[in-house]
Amino acid sequence: MKLLSLAESKSCLKLHFFCKGLILAFFFYSGNEDFKPEMLKGKRVIVTGASTGIGEQMAYHLARMGSHILITARTEAKLQKVVAQCLELGAASASYINGSMEDMAFAQSVVKKAEELWGGLDMLILNHVSPAFLSYFNSDVAYMQKVLNINFLSYVTMTVASLPMLKNSGGSIVVVSSLAGKVAFPFTVYYSATKFALDGFFSSLRQEFAMKNTNVSITLCVLGLIDTETAMKAISGVVQISAAPKEECALEIIKGGALRQREIYYEYLSTRIPLLIRDWAPNLLDYIIQRNYNVEKLKD
Ligand SMILES: NC(=O)c1ccc[n+]([C@@H]2O[C@H](COP(=O)([O-])OP(=O)(O)OC[C@H]3O[C@@H](n4cnc5c(N)ncnc54)[C@H](OP(=O)(O)O)[C@@H]3O)[C@@H](O)[C@H]2O)c1
Ligand SMILES: *[C@@H]1O[C@H](CO)[C@@H](O)[C@H](O)[C@H]1NC(C)=O
Ligand SMILES: *[C@@H]1O[C@H](CO)[C@@H](O)[C@H](O)[C@H]1NC(C)=O
């Protein structure tokens, strides 16, 4: 009898520690498994806009992890250099195809090339953007159409073309967006419109995938300012905020995709806090944002 109650109190103690551990684990890991670079070993990955910036860094990370990589952008010479570097870093294979994402036939041909190369696809990383600059909206509807094609419609086109392969592999779609796709900033009207569109399209599609048991994950990446050459040049003189490193940013995007997360925020606090303020005090957020701009330095 005594023995039994001892055993009972022991198992009660065990349960107590188990629950505590569960709660702690929830707080520290928010239910996610840990990322391991081996998760990307041998995986077949397309990275768009990989000739420079964050896309280039993603290609290098994937190469170190031993992935098969297909990169794309317009500038062939830069892509050739990135491919050579990827092979040196240990990519299972690396290829490129150059062309403009303004052209939907080209967007489709990138996916076709992956199919020819590998006969399947595990991850589609959509990252390219039309070069952005800061200026007042100048009412150019034709330009809006062009930027929508590059930053939004080509993402839709590539997603549609990839879906059969991604369904087959239980693959992932990774969409690189911006804080400017969740919060409105001034002087980025064209860019912001396309980034908000990505959230609408991919978040709605994610719901349908869940309801249809389509095993393709969609990760939307909400990035703050990152220290790429293009971004630094674009904001120079107009806004002063600190930029996060592109290498770490690229790794966080890949991790988010591999762990099949719904969204990633990088850097965490500098993207999450504005979103909190947006929902509770939008006028205050507008005020804070507007104070940050040196309007005299805008090019028009
Ligand atoms: N850097 C930031 O502060 C920041 C902040 C938030 C979000 N993001 C997002 O992160 C992603 C990468 O940004 P980044 O700063 O790394 O940009 P980036 O260095 O300017 O790279 C853009 C890439 O897209 C390609 N590209 C441009 N126009 C194209 C077109 N018409 N067709 C095909 N490819 C085209 C470029 O190559 P070619 O010129 O050779 O075509 C380049 O490889 C973007 O989605 C951006 O919105 C960046
Ligand atoms: C692809 O690269 C070639 C060679 O550099 C170039 O002539 C061509 O214009 C590029 N294609 C596009 C669509 O930019
Ligand atoms: C969905 O795909 C992932 C990754 O390929 C796989 O680990 C998981 O088991 C799949 N889930 C189902 C329900 O098939």
Could you characterize what this model shows?
- It is a single-pass type II membrane protein.
- Keywords: Endoplasmic reticulum, Membrane, Oxidoreductase, Transmembrane, Transmembrane helix.
- There is one protein chain.
- This protein has 300 residues and is of the alpha/beta class.
- It has one domain: 3-Layer(aba) Sandwich (Rossmann fold).
- It is 55% helix and 13% strand.
- It has ten helices and seven strands.
- Strands 3-2-1-4-5-6-7 form a seven-stranded parallel sheet, sandwiched between helices.
- Helix 6 links the parallel strand 5 and strand 6.
- Helix 2 packs parallel to helix 3 and helix 4 packs parallel to helix 5.
- The chain is globular and about 50 Å long.
- The model has no long low-confidence stretch (mean pLDDT 93).
- Bound molecules: NADP nicotinamide-adenine-dinucleotide phosphate (NAP) and 2-acetamido-2-deoxy-beta-D-glucopyranose (NAG) (2 copies).
- One 2-acetamido-2-deoxy-beta-D-glucopyranose binds next to loops.
Q: How would you summarize this macromolecular structure in one to three sentences?
A:
This protein is an alpha/beta fold and 300 residues long.
Secondary-structure map with pairings?
Elements: H1 2-29, E1 44-48, H2 53-64, E2 68-73, H3 76-89, E3 93-98, H4 104-118, E4 123-126, H5 141-169, E5 172-178, H6 189-212, E6 217-223, H7 229-235, H8 246-258, E7 263-266, H9 268-280, H10 282-291
Parallel strand pairs: 1-2, 1-4, 2-3, 4-5, 5-6, 6-7
Helix pairs in contact: 2-3, 2-8, 4-5, 5-6, 9-10
Bound molecules: NADP nicotinamide-adenine-dinucleotide phosphate (NAP) and 2-acetamido-2-deoxy-beta-D-glucopyranose (NAG) (2 copies).
